[in-house]
């Protein structure tokens, strides 16, 4: 169930794994040749010997033997011919490239547009790992039986997944485990006469790790390398896409052109940075022409709204009764005055740019809003928009009747779009809808290209869950006094949070409970007072794999509140030594923060020891690999401290990607402003097999994951 209602999700019942495996094998039978070639090429990429092509074929046959229970093979001569046919698709000169040890195998791989190894082989490798680990811990005093062993594998596999040592839980299913056990038996790795060949078992594990490293290499290659890579592409990848004028309009200009596509726009907080009804009502009340009945209806609407009833249709009907008998011409004139005096300067520049881009592509631009024509018409005229769907008040002989002729809200907006599409031959599957409100879900659901624009918290979360583009425009007006007050209140939330923590600690006689309560309270209060709404994707990863190293990209001072809101308990942080000397330094030290001197490498390494101890005691550690905040969209270079810490602590790394905290406190500002923050918590990264000598590769791989997520 999502915030917008029920949503279909799919899963595979354990009883259907065997059937699914059969069909998966049928499909993968067309791709395993390519997967073997990819893996063999990675194996020989650093081979400079004259026998490189021989080593390539030896590796192909080794892979065929390793996965002999997973795929159906032809005889070896025919199989070799099939491999050669697939190699021809890699490069027509494949034989010369592989034979000549001076040729670059990595370049050959990088020229490919598709890699299949991860999809085809990864699940089998992980199942083999589970069987290997289970054999390694098998009690030799127990009689070995396949059923008992598989049951233990199921338990061990879930433990390995929980520890972050395998990534896919579907690897821990009987069909894959049974197949891996067959391989172990065939290789004489299961107990024989109460003994296991542990040396051979270790060699098997090393082989599986080597294959896993090759898959990681291919995955990294897929991220970083394409045939059309240019310097501009690399530079563009270094920053988070924002909501600048150019990026907003350029995305539209890349789309299909034609009058069969429409761009629907909501009004408030989408085209204008204000609420037109509020300005309309204020101006009406101050005009001195408001009737007693009109005032009473507005008062009744306010009471109903305050009582928790947010039904727009009911509130509009009550308001309409209050203006019964009033001349429509009065509202037309009022609408023009409201626009001139209050709304003209609130039109978003980004909205103007979007509309111009859609018109340039030949799209039909439509306003579809719950507001009335008297609020919309002046804005539409300014923007050159002729097609308008809105809430219509019934008029008879030039005066309002007190009835609603048509309601353009919720499902009403979807009906309006369908009506416009039918009349104008519009393809809704190719059309756009820009809105800020979750109330517009019925239209968002039927449109092909929904765009959450300056979204409220519920729509922000929904868009995040569905991977809809989210546009956030620059504010056309500022509220520095209010935001300054918000910032002060957010910082002051330290005091009630500490008191709450002390009270909890006194009751439970537990220091950790006191710390946890303080952190959670500070996160909740701080973000609320600062006006930070946080939408999270992958939230389960925050809880399921602790203790862990929580790495986060550091964009602004708002990150501290965000992290406390997300992590809440059993966590400490790494901070620069300079913060220890600030007024809040003693507080964070009391909460368990670890301060390091970045200017002295030896002292920094020494200061990390308490973090390792914390991990071993079940306390997670939050750390920014960049080492300092960027204050902008730029992702800085990663330092190695977090990676050494993960290796020493034997815990997974969980990347927390904060997409737009820089908007809450831009570079050069010390004031927080209300912002919808988007956070993606990626799946845990298993560090159990990491080696210090490869740490540069791990650093680059993780940073690329951040860049990839930030630009998506």
What does this structure look like?
The chain starts with 16 loop residues before the first helix and ends with a helix. The longest helix has 27 residues, at 198-224. A seven-stranded mixed sheet has the order 4-3-2-1-5-6-7, sandwiched between helices. It has a seven-stranded mixed sheet with strand order 8-14-13-9-12-10-11, with helices on both faces. The chain is globular, with a radius of gyration of 31 Å. It folds into three domains: 12-229, no CATH class; 256-471, Rossmann fold, CATH 3.40.50; 491-710, Glycerol-3-phosphate (1)-acyltransferase, CATH 3.40.1130. 52% of the residues lie in helices and 11% in strands. It has 712 residues and is an alpha/beta fold. Helix 7 (117-136) crosses helix 8, helix 7 (117-136) runs antiparallel to helix 10 and helix 22 (480-492) runs antiparallel to helix 24 (511-530). The protein has 30 helices and 14 strands.
Shape: globular
Mean pLDDT: 84
Strand content: 5-15%
Q: Low-confidence parts, pLDDT < 50 over ≥5 residues?
A: 1-7, 226-245
CATH topology of the largest domain: Glycerol-3-phosphate (1)-acyltransferase
Secondary structure class reads alpha/beta
Kindly report the spatial arrangement of strands forming the biggest sheet: 4-3-2-1-5-6-7
CATH domain class of the largest domain? Alpha Beta
Helix content range: 40-55%
CATH hierarchy: architecture of the largest domain: 3-Layer(aba) Sandwich
Oligomerization: single chain
Distance between the termini: 25 Å
* CATH superfamily descriptor of the largest domain: Glycerol-3-phosphate (1)-acyltransferase
How many strand elements? Answer: 14
Which value, in Å, is the CA radius of gyration?
Answer: 31 Å
Task: Give the count of structural domains.
Answer: 3
Please count the helical segments. Answer: 30
How is the main sheet built? 7 strands, mixed
């Amino acid at each position: 169930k999502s915030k917008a209602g029920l949503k279909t999700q799919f899963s595979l019942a354990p009883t259907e794994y065997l059937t699914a495996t059969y069909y998966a094998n049928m499909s993968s039978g067309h791709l395993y040749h390519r997967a073997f070639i990819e893996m063999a090429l990675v194996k020989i990429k650093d081979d400079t010997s004259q026998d490189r092509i021989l080593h390539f074929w030896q590796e192909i046959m080794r892979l065929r033997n390793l996965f002999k229970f997973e795929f159906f093979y032809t005889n070896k001569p025919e199989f070799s011919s099939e491999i050669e046919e697939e190699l021809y698709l890699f490069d027509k000169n494949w034989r010369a490239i592989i034979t000549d040890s001076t040729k670059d195998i990595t370049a050959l791989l990088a020229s490919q547009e598709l890699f299949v190894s991860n999809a085809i082989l990864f699940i089998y490798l992980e199942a083999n790992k589970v069987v290997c680990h289970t054999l390694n811990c098998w009690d030799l005093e127990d009689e070995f039986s396949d059923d008992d062993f598989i049951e233990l594998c199921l338990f061990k596999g879930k433990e390995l997944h929980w520890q972050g040592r395998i990534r896919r839980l579907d690897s821990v299913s009987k069909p894959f485990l049974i197949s891996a056990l067959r391989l172990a038996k065939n290789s004489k790795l299961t107990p024989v006469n109460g003994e296991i060949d542990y040396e051979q078992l270790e060699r098997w594990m090393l082989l599986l790790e080597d294959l896993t490293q090759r898959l990681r290499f291919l995955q990294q290659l897929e991220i970083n390398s394409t045939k059309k890579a240019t310097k501009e592409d690399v530079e563009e990848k270094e920053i988070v896409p924002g909501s600048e004028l150019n990026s907003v309009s350029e995305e539209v200009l890349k789309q299909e052109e034609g009058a069969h596509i429409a761009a629907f726009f909501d009004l408030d907080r989408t085209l204008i940075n204000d609420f037109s009804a509020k300005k309309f009502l204020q101006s009406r009340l101050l005009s001195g022409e408001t009737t007693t009945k009109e005032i009473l209806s507005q008062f009744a609407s306010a009471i109903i709204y305050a009582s928790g009833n947010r039904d727009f249709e009911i509130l509009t009907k009550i308001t309409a009764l209050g203006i019964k008998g009033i001349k429509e011409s009065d509202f037309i004139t009022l609408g023009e005055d409201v626009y001139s005096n209050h709304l003209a300067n609130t039109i978003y520049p980004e909205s103007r740019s979007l509309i111009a881009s859609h018109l340039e592509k030949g799209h039909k631009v439509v306003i579809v809003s719950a507001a009335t024509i008297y609020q919309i018409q002046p804005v539409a005229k300014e923007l050159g928009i002729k097609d308008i769907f809105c809430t219509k008040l019934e008029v008879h002989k030039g005066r309002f009747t007190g009835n609603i002729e048509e309601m353009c809200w919720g499902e009403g907006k979807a009906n309006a779009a369908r009506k416009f599409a039918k009349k104008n031959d519009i393809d809704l599957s190719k059309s756009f809808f820009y809105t800020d409100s979750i109330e517009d879900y019925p239209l968002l659901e039927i449109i092909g290209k929904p765009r959450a624009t300056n979204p409220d918290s519920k729509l922000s979360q929904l868009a995040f869950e569905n991977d809809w583009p989210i546009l956030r425009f620059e504010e056309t007006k500022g509220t520095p006094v209010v935001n300054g007050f918000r910032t002060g209140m957010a910082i002051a939330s330290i005091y009630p949070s500490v008191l709450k923590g002390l009270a909890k600690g006194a009751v439970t006689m537990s220091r950790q409970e006191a710390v946890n309560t303080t952190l959670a309270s500070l996160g909740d209060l701080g973000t609320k007072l600062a006006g930070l709404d946080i939408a999270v994707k992958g939230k389960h990863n925050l809880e399921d794999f602790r203790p862990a190293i929580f790495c986060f990209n550091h964009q602004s001072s708002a990150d501290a509140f965000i992290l406390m809101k997300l992590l809440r308990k059993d966590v400490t942080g790494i901070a620069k030594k300079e913060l220890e000397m600030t007024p809040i330094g003693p507080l964070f030290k009391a909460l368990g923060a670890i301060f390091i001197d970045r200017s002295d490498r030896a002292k920094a390494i020494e200061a990390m020891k308490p973090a390792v101890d914390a991990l071993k005691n079940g306390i997670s550690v939050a750390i920014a690999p960049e080492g300092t905040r960027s204050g902008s969209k730029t992702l800085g270079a990663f330092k190695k401290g977090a990676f050494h810490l993960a290796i020493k602590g034997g815990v997974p790394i969980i990347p927390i990607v904060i997409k737009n905290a820089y908007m809450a406190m831009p570079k050069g500002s010390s004031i927080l402003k209300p912002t919808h923050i988007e956070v993606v918590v990626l799946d845990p990264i298993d560090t159990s097999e990491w080696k210090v000598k490869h740490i540069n590769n791990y650093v680059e791989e993780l940073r690329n994951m951040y860049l990839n997520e930030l630009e998506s």
